[in-house]
């Protein structure tokens, strides 16, 4: 072969390769923000790719309506790095919505990818629209909002939500009082302020009512946040973090002329909790205090704060400029990173000390997905831990549940099995209101009523009295473990001890000799509604939320706790703001004193 022929052969081969590469490369469509809605056919194995130019700190909403095919959304930067993803559990129909605010002005790529699942369609279509966030909120007619509120009330009654703590007449009276506040021209935010106190009156901590997507996006773009992080202690509000270090640790007595007592009560009034509990409300509100403030009182460029200083004891008034949602979020994230002891980064921490004959288990999460191999993995870990405790001859066990807000049903039973000497009856009863509901069209089970019925029927049946109760063999405790611990047990509890965490505490109160230290659990002592959920969106206002379906009533022989309260500790210890700032733990110190006294 001549050199010239070889050269042309290489050129042809390169051209062929280049042509092949371009044929399989993803085609990218350049679109402008606020474009008209477009419809595109999409096929399995071939994502649809669009490109946008986004400006720094602007908030953009990407809305993709799935029409017969289940897709996920991924937003990438110019280097192909994934910045945000969205895949809602809504099947082949409905919307996937992704909201993003870039840190720099540049081109960004959106990938709409069909999910590679057997039940997914091979071909379908999507409708796409990307927009900025409007600077005004939609206003609704009185009739539309009344219709939404009535639908919510009827859904609550159909699922009996709120009827454990109220008679029908009482609950209906609460509904009518709030409904009378609806007027023409309200925004979804105005409507939220009417509905949220009604939802809170269900007195079910697993129930929720949330702002509409429109309102959330509005706050992300235009929200004005108080740049402080706070702590609530004994009903008072203290500064935990601020840009001015001299303010830290001081009490806030008023904001914009309103007393903090009034502000906190209004916040508590819109936050559901189990029964009459307030410790969970305090923990949840303090974590997002500035968001609650914005939600209740609206935009404010400058906040006037009345501070009660301790050294020297003086009252001062200071003005603080509000910050954007992005700045506030970065402030919270930086504080969490710098102060991991106030939060939790690990689901389980184990400390075995044979010298002091003390074991400490900090269990921050009962979610099976937080552990390798799920519930089996958690049990294997507990087997190993309690085997070691037994082999080391440890006599004191501290179980710290102060950040445990629950997780997977049954995880609490695994832990209980190491503390009991005989099997126990876990629940007085477990029931669901029905196996079918009339309002699924506004829930995540739209068009899938049969799936919901099948899910419920696996664990529940209709008894002779007409109630839907759990099938024999379900929701039962476990037998004692061969590695049972027989020494002294101390359990640390607090306002974030909720759901499965609180349920474990209630079981331990009734079936062990454990001593409880801390503050009242955030979860109900006698039970709660949780388990299965119906996630809903009201059709006019767009307010969303969830309704828990399963009523769990714990079998309690110890009736010393007032109805509607969490487990009240044997030793109530409420950390002060000084304890938080010094990273001191008075609850743990109290337990150490109890152990020391018992050993001397």
TrEMBL record:
Tail specific protease domain mapped to chain residues? 360-529
UniProt keywords, alphabetically:
Signal
Q: Which GO terms describe its molecular function?
A: serine-type peptidase activity
**Which Gene Ontology BP annotations are present?**
proteolysis
Q: Which residues, if any, are the signal sequence?
A: 1-25
Has the keyword Signal been applied to this entry?
A: yes
Entry protein name: Peptidase S41
Organism of origin is: Sphingobacterium deserti
């Amino acid at each position: 072969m001549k050199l010239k022929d070889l050269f042309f052969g290489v050129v042809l081969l390169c051209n062929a390769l280049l042509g092949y590469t371009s044929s399989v490369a993803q085609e990218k469509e350049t679109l402008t923000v606020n474009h008209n809605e477009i419809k595109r056919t999409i096929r399995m194995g071939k994502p649809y790719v669009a490109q946008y130019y986004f400006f720094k700190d602007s908030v953009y909403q990407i809305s993709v309506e799935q029409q017969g095919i289940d897709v996920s959304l991924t937003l990438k930067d110019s280097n192909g790095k994934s910045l945000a993803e969205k895949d809602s559990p809504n099947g082949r129909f409905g919307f996937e919505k992704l909201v993003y605010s870039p840190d720099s002005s540049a081109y960004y790529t959106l990938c709409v990818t069909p999910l590679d699942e057997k039940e997914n369609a091979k071909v379908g279509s999507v409708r796409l629209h990307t927009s900025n966030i409007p600077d005004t909120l939609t206003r609704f007619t009185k009739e539309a909002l009344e219709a939404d509120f009535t639908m919510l009330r009827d859904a609550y009654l159909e699922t009996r939500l709120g009827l454990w703590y109220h008679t029908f007449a009482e609950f209906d009276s609460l509904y009518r009082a709030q409904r009378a506040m609806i007027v023409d021209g309200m925004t979804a935010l105005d409507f939220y302020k009417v509905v949220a106190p009604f939802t809170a009156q269900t007195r079910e901590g697993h129930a929720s009512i949330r702002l509409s997507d429109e309102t959330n996006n509005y706050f992300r773009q235009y929200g004005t946040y108080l740049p402080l992080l706070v702590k609530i202690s004994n009903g008072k509000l203290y500064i935990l973090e601020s840009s001015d270090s001299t303010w830290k640790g001081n009490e806030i007595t008023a904001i914009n002329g309103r007393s903090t007592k009034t502000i906190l009560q209004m916040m508590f009034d819109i936050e559901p909790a189990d029964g009459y509990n307030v410790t969970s409300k305090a923990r949840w509100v303090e974590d997002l205090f500035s968001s609650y403030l914005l939600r209740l009182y609206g935009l404010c460029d400058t906040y006037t704060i009345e501070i009660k200083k301790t050294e020297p004891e003086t009252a001062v008034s200071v003005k603080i400029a509000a910050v954007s949602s992005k700045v506030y979020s970065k402030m919270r994230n930086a504080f969490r990173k710098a102060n991991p002891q106030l939060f939790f980064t690990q689901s389980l921490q184990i400390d075995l000390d044979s010298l002091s004959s003390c074991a400490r288990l900090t269990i921050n999460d009962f979610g099976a997905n937080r552990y390798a191999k799920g519930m089996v993995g958690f049990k294997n870990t507990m087997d190993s831990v309690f085997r070691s405790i037994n082999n080391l001859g440890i006599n004191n066990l501290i179980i710290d549940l102060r950040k445990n807000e629950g997780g997977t049903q049954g995880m609490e039973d695994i832990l209980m099995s190491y503390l009991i000497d005989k099997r126990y009856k876990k629940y007085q009863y477990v029931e669901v209101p029905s196996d079918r509901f009339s309002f699924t069209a506004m829930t995540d089970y739209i068009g899938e009523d049969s799936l919901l019925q099948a899910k419920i029927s696996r664990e529940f049946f209709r008894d002779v009295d007409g109630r839907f109760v759990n099938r024999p063999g379900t929701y039962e405790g476990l037998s004692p473990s061969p590695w049972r611990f027989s020494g002294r047990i101390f359990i640390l509890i607090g306002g974030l001890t909720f759901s499965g965490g609180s349920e474990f505490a209630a079981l331990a109160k009734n079936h062990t000799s454990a001593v409880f230290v801390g503050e009242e659990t955030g979860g109900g002592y006698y039970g709660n509604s949780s388990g299965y959920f119906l996630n809903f969106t009201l059709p006019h206002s767009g307010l969303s939320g969830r309704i828990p379906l399963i009523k769990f009533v714990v079998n309690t022989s110890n009736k010393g706790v007032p109805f509607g309260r969490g487990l009240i500790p044997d030793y109530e210890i409420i950390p002060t703001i000084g304890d938080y700032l010094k990273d001191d733990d008075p609850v743990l110190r109290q337990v150490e004193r109890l152990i020391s006294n018992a050993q001397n």
